[in-house]
Amino acid sequence: MHGGSWLVLLGGIAAIAWVNWYFLFAGRRSTSAAPGAGGMQEVTVVVQGGYSPSEVRVRQGSPVRIVFDRRETSGCTEELVFPDFAIHRFLPPERKTAVEISPPAPGAYEFTCGMGMFHGKVIVE
Question: Considering the entire predicted model, what is its pTM?
Answer without folding.
Answer: 0.75
